[in-house]
Amino acid sequence: MEKVDIKRLARELNLSISTVSRALRDSHEISDSTKKKVFELARQLNYQPNPHASSLREQRTKTIALIIPEVANNFFSLVIDGIESIAAEKGFHVLIYLTHEKTEKEVEFVRQLSNGRVDGILMSVSGLGQSITHLEDLMQKNIPLVFFDRTPDELDVPKIITDDRDSSFRATEHLIQCGCKKIVHVSILRQMSISDKRKQGYLDAINKHGLPEMVLDCSIDEEETYQLIKTCIREQKPDALFASLERLAIAAYYVCGELGLNIPGDLKVLSFSNLQTASLLNPPLTTVTQSAFDMGAAATKQLFRLIKGQEIDERTITIRADLIRRKSTSCD
Amino acid sequence: MEKVDIKRLARELNLSISTVSRALRDSHEISDSTKKKVFELARQLNYQPNPHASSLREQRTKTIALIIPEVANNFFSLVIDGIESIAAEKGFHVLIYLTHEKTEKEVEFVRQLSNGRVDGILMSVSGLGQSITHLEDLMQKNIPLVFFDRTPDELDVPKIITDDRDSSFRATEHLIQCGCKKIVHVSILRQMSISDKRKQGYLDAINKHGLPEMVLDCSIDEEETYQLIKTCIREQKPDALFASLERLAIAAYYVCGELGLNIPGDLKVLSFSNLQTASLLNPPLTTVTQSAFDMGAAATKQLFRLIKGQEIDERTITIRADLIRRKSTSCD
DNA sequence: TGTTTCTACGAAAACGTTTCCGTAAAAAAA
DNA sequence: TTTTTTTACGGAAACGTTTTCGTAGAAACA
């Protein structure tokens, strides 16, 4: 089957390549009659322009890249949904890269993207607190770049974030209103600004009400985390556990199962989470739920503004998270 | 900041473009001394080749496309993980497309990919039973193509599937062994071969044991599905519900909550599902769990074989699903 | 010494587009 | 009628690579 490119169309129609190209792009320089002929043949042969040739010539790719730590995670899945909805609408393609929380991978991906592969990059950084020179390099190259959720504080870049401190504060006050006196905040990845903000919201609420600060920093390792939580619950006997991440709450549920503790009777549990089945858990889990889809959509819209060269008014967009009260923190 | 391309390297080193290109690709035609010089400068200036120029010239892109119905779904999230793990290993890039179960979108994506954008395509089809001419077109163009999970029976293509019939049979027998006599199989998207196979496994087991066939076909609409399940449970009073899809089991859980039915006392529930939190539900849900990560990885490996032009021995790879027994089908 | 074979490199074509520039013929203006 | 403008198109350069082909000079061989 012979290849179908512009050259072929031109040959079959006895036209020049330039004329065919212009006809396809509906240029005013081409007469309606030839346009019609070109369109007709293109349709017949199912002509599709070679995107790499176009990208090379036009110096734009209609493609964006998404770099995230992981995908098997309700938050990021929903974010992808939001991103895709906007990208598809604009006819853009989306490349996806998973760092698995490894900065080296992030550095490598960024390097790969630094020479015209994409028109812009959306990113939720892995392991913050690490070196950010690769991100600075990217900015220097003037590649449109938008961060979401996990953003580097050190850089002045467009970002989409959750009201982490405030929602954490509200969540903590919810626990306090339920009568909890010993609330432990469980967190991970201490280098992440987002964890810090959540912890800060907790601390602010705790201090406002004169309660004791109880903070547990876990590691990345699942098993170690499980043991830490177990020891904490057994020895410190908190009456509420506020998890900064979904997987920490899951671990807490298992620990309670093992220790024979009743939720919410013995321990109230609350977590940042995007679990769709939160209300089906035993017991239904009270969550602080981020609008993940909206964050993805907002980030993408912002990125398109940058790509189009438009000035952006708000460099930081904050999207409110909702506290959804369920049985794991019920008061009776 | 001046652009850094091969031309720039050549100019600064007083070499020709071809020599630089060859040096970068470590050709034996270039002396070690010049190679060293070229590498050094490339490193200094952080040279990255323009991928579109390479793709255009080489007629290969080191990019694959993934077309799936949705991403906010545990199964597909894990599949993506599996795909990415293999792709990253080979230095390939992954484009992601979501059809949201709409065949029109699938057709459009396929059209967009039909002219050299990618080296191959991985796909789980949307709404089977629809027209498949767009897939036939793709095959005619000789674009490497591998299907997984939801595959079109009509086409002779490489595919990765679950042992849907067999695992469904085993699951149904598990319910029967628990003493269930009125087992209803709930399914959706009746045009999907995968649904058919699951239903067939159920029917085979039911008939083998001389029990009544009870089949409920739901629609895509969430609310309608909910009502159908509710009516079915109330009027037909099954003692077990076998859901072909995760979301149907979720709906069943809600229905039972509303009707005040006890799981597993009044109704045992079992479902195909990749929910990570299945064991934390109330009650823990017995699942038939596909090895989603492995399916993604296997599909990608298969695709790479096609891309390399290797003959593939097994055109259909079946990956076994596991029945994980939990409390929702407990016998006591 | 003369001939052949390597070695190491340069010129240029090619990949498939888009667009700048140029120009006949037709139309409009003078 | 002559001049100017417009219309509709063709030629060729350009995007940044890779690779084919060609060739000086060095090395090997006779």
UniProtKB/TrEMBL annotation, chains A, B:
Residues 4-58 form the HTH lacI-type domain. Keywords: DNA-binding, Transcription, Transcription regulation. The keyword Transcription applies. SUPFAM superfamilies: lambda repressor-like DNA-binding domains, Periplasmic binding protein-like I. The keyword Membrane does not apply. Transmembrane segments: none annotated. GO terms for molecular function: DNA-binding transcription factor activity; transcription cis-regulatory region binding. Pfam families: LacI, Peripla_BP_1. This is Substrate-binding domain-containing protein. It comes from Hufsiella ginkgonis.
